[in-house]
Design goal:
Order of helices and strands: EHHEEHEHEEEEEEEHHHH
Oligomer: single chain
CATH superfamily: Class I glutamine amidotransferase (GATase) domain
Strand order of the largest sheet: 2-1-3-4-11-10-9-6-7
Strand content: 15-25%
CATH class: Alpha Beta
Shape: globular
CATH topology: Rossmann fold
Length: 238
């Protein structure tokens, strides 16, 4: 399998020294769960794209500090490309910003969440026990960092996960699209850095709660295994 990773951000130098990029973090995550893939990373903020998406089995969109609804030229170009990929029914995976941008391209409302930042470990209701590795699952806990949200399901999408704080936390569209708001690729040290960086913005109560929540672990590798199944075959086997 050959995967195209569209990396939509540039990490702070402190993070880049250890993690290099969001794209590299996803490659490491999929390696940990045994995916034997060939992956190429393209940084969209620098206008990097493959000559053709036809040689890839799937396209993954990473997170970003940018808004998916931004008028920044590189975001506008990314939306144009993603719209084309959706029309071609290329398999796509979106995470955080990628989740929001794909939903926006499909016609869903996306914007700044009035309830503020989601940060640290967050727990979501899981609505799809029929998906791979999901039998008997009713909840999932993952690491999050976002102030934008998808406000309603895109047309034709099925809700996968939700919470009171984030009603559209994950969705799928048949065997073509799987998107999720929190970050399966995050690890606790990465989240700690982001919490420390945004401490003044978050406020002391949310900052402390987010930091304490990291002690409980997360289930990013569960999502990674699900994504591997999605890329390598039908999301729901019949």
């Amino acid at each position: 399998m050959k995967i195209c990773i569209l990396d939509n951000d540039n990490l702070d130098p402190t993070l880049a020294t250890r993690y290099h990029s969001f794209g590299s973090m996803f490659i490491s995550l999929f390696e940990r769960v045994g995916a034997e893939w060939s992956s190429e990373v393209f940084n969209t903020t620098r206008g990097e794209y493959p000559p053709s998406f036809d040689t890839f089995d799937a396209v993954l969109l990473t997170g970003s500090h940018a808004d998916s609804f931004s008028d920044e030229p590189w975001v506008v170009e990314l939306r144009r490309r993603v719209t084309q990929l959706l029309e071609q029914r290329k398999k796509m995976v979106g995470v955080c910003f990628g989740h929001q941008l794909i939903a926006l391209c499909m016609g869903a409302p996306v914007g700044r969440a009035p309830q503020g930042w989601g940060a640290g470990r967050m727990t979501y209701d899981w609505h799809r026990p029929d998906l791979p590795y999901s039998e008997n699952r009713t909840q999932i806990s993952l690491l999050a960092s976002h102030q934008d949200q998808v406000f309603a399901l895109p047309p034709g999408a099925t809700l996968v996960a939700s919470s009171k704080f984030c009603p559209v936390a994950a969705f799928s569209v048949a065997d073509a699209v799987f998107c999720i708001q929190p970050h399966p690729e995050f690890v606790e040290d990465f989240s700690t850095y982001l919490l420390d960086k945004r401490r003044d913005v978050l406020g002391e109560e949310l900052y402390t709660a987010g930091l304490n929540s990291l002690e409980n672990g997360h289930e990013g590798e569960h999502i990674a295994r699900l994504v591997v199944s999605f890329v390598q075959g039908p999301l729901v086997r019949t």
